[in-house]
Amino acid sequence: MTYVVTDNCIMCKYTDCVEVCPVDCFYEGENTLVIHPDECIDCGVCEPECPADAIRPDTEPDMETWVEFNRKYAEVWPVITRKKEPMPGYEEMDGQADKLAKYFSPNPGEGD
Description:
Blueprint: E1 3-5, H1 16-20, E2 26-28, E3 33-35, E4 55-57, H2 64-74, H3 90-93, H4 99-103
Antiparallel strand pairs: 1-4, 2-3
Protein name: Ferredoxin
InterPro entries: 4Fe4S_Fe-S-bd, 4Fe4S_Fe_S_CS, 7Fe_ferredoxin, Fd_C, FdxA, RnfB_subfamily
Keywords: 3Fe-4S, 4Fe-4S, Electron transport, Iron, Iron-sulfur, Metal-binding, Repeat, Transport
């Protein structure tokens, strides 16, 4: 089992989760985060820290696509280990539908 970031993180990018991760397996894109599924130790401490409820275990239905999405971008984006401010307008973006299709950017973030 591993945990993955899903589309509700897009355009919110809360980073509460990265501070509690004991193995630093979060990676930062321009407008979202991902978890490297091969580095995640399945401890689960990140999941309750996410205000957007965007972190899910891969054992939930239909998570295979998100596992591959997280792996793909974790291999090219910089690691992030410190909390930052969420994205501007995050309150309005939290919970919007179809965020992957509408807003996702494949560009890397700044990392640490």
